[in-house]
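Exercise 7b. Backbone tokens:
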């Protein structure tokens, strides 16, 4: 009976040691789980901040694109007006050449001025069109980034 009692005490001691070991492992696992939760929350917050930043950039680029588009439209209208003026000046110039050579210098000056204005408008139009294209490329880049956010946000279940 003493041997059996000693054997049972030994088993109880072993089971207590095993239980303590398991309790330590469980506490470690609970700490690790809490750390992983905190890490996931931080990652989610970082991802949300990145999404908000991308949305702000998208809004800013959209405003810039609209402004560039409006500017391009305005410059096209101005360009058309100047072309009409240039045509009128050329017609006037031809009329003056046929009969009134005294006013030829003034007409030539007007035509030159109209040509200079036209060239300025064309240069400005090209710049605005380049800005519009650049804005569109930036918007495409943001759209691609937003499409890839789902892939960035996917975190494997084992926390790695």
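Sequence design result:
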């Amino acid at each position: 009976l003493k041997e059996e009692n000693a054997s049972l005490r030994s088993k109880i001691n072993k089971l207590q040691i095993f239980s303590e070991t398991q309790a330590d492992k469980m506490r470690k696992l609970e700490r690790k789980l809490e750390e992983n939760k905190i890490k996931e929350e931080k990652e989610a917050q970082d991802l949300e901040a990145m999404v908000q930043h991308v949305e702000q950039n998208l809004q800013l680029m959209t405003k810039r694109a609209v402004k560039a588009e409006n500017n391009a439209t305005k410059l096209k209208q101005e360009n058309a007006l100047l072309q009409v003026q240039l045509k009128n000046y050329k017609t006037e110039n031809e009329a003056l050449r046929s009969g009134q050579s005294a006013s030829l210098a003034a007409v030539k000056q007007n035509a030159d001025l109209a040509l200079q204005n036209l060239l300025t408008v064309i240069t400005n139009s090209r710049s605005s069109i380049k800005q519009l294209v650049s804005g569109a490329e930036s918007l495409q880049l943001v759209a691609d980034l937003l499409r890839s956010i789902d892939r960035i946000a996917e975190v494997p279940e084992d926390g790695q």
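Instructor comment: The mean pLDDT is 85. Residues 43 and 126 are 44 Å apart (CA to CA).
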